[in-house]
Specification:
The protein has 549 residues and is of the alpha/beta class. Helices cover 33% and strands 16% of the residues. α8 (214-224) runs parallel beside α11 (315-325), α13 crosses α19 and α15 (423-437) packs parallel to α16. The structure holds thiamine diphosphate. Residues 80, 391-394, 418-421, 448-451, 454, 474, 476, 478-482 line the site of thiamine diphosphate (TPP).
């Protein structure tokens, strides 16, 4: 008779889920024993890295990935990036070991007490199989829960004594759909309203990228001749930012967002919350008299929209259907200009004063600005590359640089939750996906020196797998964005905003990467070009002027 372990791997194999990203403990080793050679185990050195790598890999493959972390404390360490995966709608099957069933009642060392409660509310389903022989079917159900819309992480707690139990190789393999079609009547109503509008505007969000609706999104925009904004705080870019109809990124606050849509009588939001606001700036959600229509794959997202009417459905299917339903019309002349101010592109309270420099060790050197760093990188970056971005003070500067204008699908990725410690491991996961799919695009991670510290161990995994990842660390020696916030909110005397004395290049070297410190734009240009040509993993510490954020 086969064991629970053998049947479980058999089910995962049938599902095509053959990548497991993990960090093991004694409660996980029984699962990993006799690890099948057609599966890949990717070791990461901290659970935040485990989940971030799994999410990047899943995004790059458009397929679920298994996460395996240690019981209890391991799952706790993983939670930050599980939250990010939940908000990013990424299908991860998160697993953690559990103590032996026979001892659980007495809560032995490493027992995951109330394991199913621990990752809630950030997983779609959380389950500890009631019997050992339910484990393979639990994986099947976990898969179905993770991939069906809205996709997201699920959790299984797996007792360590289950794996060697014998069981029938009962067939638990099933298939489920990953898209849902819209209600035809409501779709027709939406199409009619769009047809009746005199000045429609489109707002595209992450769902459109996740479901591969790049071409459909362009087609609808061109058919309507309508400008396209990205929803606030975009974790993906679903529309070409060099397209003449591209209008910019909506600001994440009520009044400025409403103002940005002025002049339109209909707002069609495709694949985004309505809306993901950040600072509280009261005002009108929409321009006077404007109507909002939302397309989303998530009933909860439809329910919590602050304004408008919703239609459930897959963004790609809805966009394609709408394009056939609505009449073609010429582009309106007043397409808003490309974003030129941080208010349009940055997720921050705009206009805050620049932070003070804390990088005393650089005082004698006229430091670069982030803009100069991006300009230098833009000279050699290839057209087709993947970016994972986590430099909070420099989102606007990046989006205004030549390399920050994303013109190809599936190229730009950012934390969907605002949690730091995501871009580095996610970039590593994307590099794994680039290799697995044969696309082999280089991955560039642009990250602040504060953000760099949260999942720095992911460099090691990239080095061990000989991936091609370039980490460009913008070193201003402080939590610049938090200084800006403090000033904006009129707060003084906030402690803990300077982080001097960190040798970033040495940290890169410590994990086996090529670590380099650059103090001029010429050095960045040369180092970045060399890193692109050489392949492998490079950490470029770009010392920037903290007063020029
Ligand atoms: C997990 C997590 N912890 C803390 C924060 C709060 N936070 C937001 S921005 C920031 C500072 C980022 O510093 P850095 O990356 O150096 O950016 P910059 O100085 O360029 O603004 C912190 C600590 C967060 N977003 N996520």
């Amino acid at each position: 008779m086969p064991t629970v372990r053998e049947v479980t791997f058999h089910v995962l194999r049938r599902l095509g889920v053959t990548a497991i990203v993990g960090n093991p403990g004694s409660t996980e080793e029984a699962f990993l024993a006799d690890f099948p050679s057609d599966f890949q185990y990717i070791l990461a050195l901290h659970e935040s890295c485990v989940v971030g790598i799994a999410e990047g890999l899943s995004q790059g493959l458009r397929a679920p990935v298994v996460v395996n972390v240690h019981t209890n404390a391991g799952l706790g360490n993983a939670m930050g990036n599980i939250i990010t995966a939940a908000l990013g709608k990424t299908p991860l099957i998160v697993t953690a070991g559990q103590q032996t069933r026979a001892m659980l009642l007495g809560e032995p060392f490493l027992a995951n007490t109330d394991a199913e409660a621990l990752p809630k509310p950030w997983v779609k389903w959380s389950y500890e199989p009631r019997r050992a022989k339910d484990v393979p079917a639990a994986f099947m159900r976990a898969y179905a829960m993770a991939v069906q819309p809205p996709a997201g992480p699920v959790f299984l707690s797996l007792p360590m004594d289950d794996w060697d139990q014998p069981m029938d190789d009962a067939l638990v393999f099933r298939t489920v759909s990953r898209r849902q079609a819209p209600d035809p009547e409501r779709l027709a109503m939406f199409a009619e309203l769009i047809g009746q509008s005199t000045s429609p505007v489109l707002v595209y969000g992450g769902d459109a990228a996740r479901c591969g609706a790049w071409e459909e999104g362009v087609a609808l925009a061109e058919r309507l001749g309508a400008p396209v904004w990205l929803a606030p705080l975009p974790e993906r870019v679903p529309f070409p930012q060099d397209h003449p109809l591209y209008a910019g990124v909506l600001p994440p606050a009520i009044a400025p967002l409403g103002a940005a849509l002025a002049g339109h009588d209909l707002v069609l939001v495709v694949g985004a919350p309505v809306f993901r606001y950040y600072p509280f700036v009261p005002g009108d959600c929409l321009p006077d008299g404007a109507r909002l229509l939302q397309i989303t794959d998530d009933p909860a997202e439809a329910a919590r929209a602050v304004v408008g009417d919703s239609l459930l459905g897959d963004a790609k299917l809805v966009l394609a259907a709408l394009a056939t339903h609505v009449a073609s019309r010429p582009a309106r002349v007043s397409i808003p200009s490309r974003p030129s101010s941080p208010a349009q592109a940055a997720p921050v309270v705009p206009g805050g004063p620049a932070p003070e420099s804390a990088a005393d060790e650089n005082a004698a050197i006229p430091a670069m600005t982030a803009q100069q760093v991006f300009a230098a990188m833009s000279e050699t970056v290839p057209d087709d590359y993947v970016i994972a971005f986590e430099a909070p003070s420099f989102m606007a500067a990046f989006s205004q640089s030549p390399m920050g204008r994303m013109a190809r699908p599936d190229s730009y990725y950012m934390t969907a939750s605002g949690g730091l410690g995501w871009a580095m491991p996610a970039g590593v996961g994307h590099a794994l996906a680039e290799r697995r799919t044969g696309r082999n695009r280089p991955v560039v991670v642009i990250i602040g020196d504060g953000s760099f510290q949260y999942a720095v161990q992911s460099i090691w995994t990239a080095v061990q797998h000989r991936l091609h990842v370039i980490f460009v660390v913008l070193k201003n020696g402080c939590y610049g964005i938090l200084k800006s916030f403090a000033a904006q909110m009129g707060l003084s005397g906030v402690p803990g905003l300077d982080i001097p004395g960190i040798d970033i290049a040495a940290l890169g070297k410590g994990y086996g990467a090529d670590g380099r410190r650059c103090e001029t734009a010429d050095q960045v240009r040369d180092r970045f070009a060399a890193a692109l040509a050489a392949g492998g993993v490079t950490v470029i510490e770009a010392v920037i002027d903290a007063t020029a954020g």
